[in-house]
Amino acid sequence: MDTLREIVHRVIKEYAVDGANFVSSLTIRPDGNLFTVVDFAVDNKGRRFVATSIVTELVGNYIVIEYDDNDKPLVDALVQAGIPREQIILAYAGESVPEVV
Hints:
By secondary structure, the protein is α+β, with helices and mostly antiparallel strands. The chain contains 2 helices and 5 strands.
């Protein structure tokens, strides 16, 4: 059975894709509890820019989504992968994050 970290990793890496004018990279903090997807792109005038599309952290048994700028919300993909919605906190939408000691 996959751990919570393994499921989150598997789901988030699907957001790190290459497109016509961008490349996305998944980064993971060394402790394995923070995931980000960073997009490197070039606009139609040839200017380069960088944007972050996902910032998610594991806090205890919760998945805390700090930021999500995707057409398919990460929360939906995680629920599809079998994570109960009650275990996912949308911090960017004002849901409170529990204190974990």
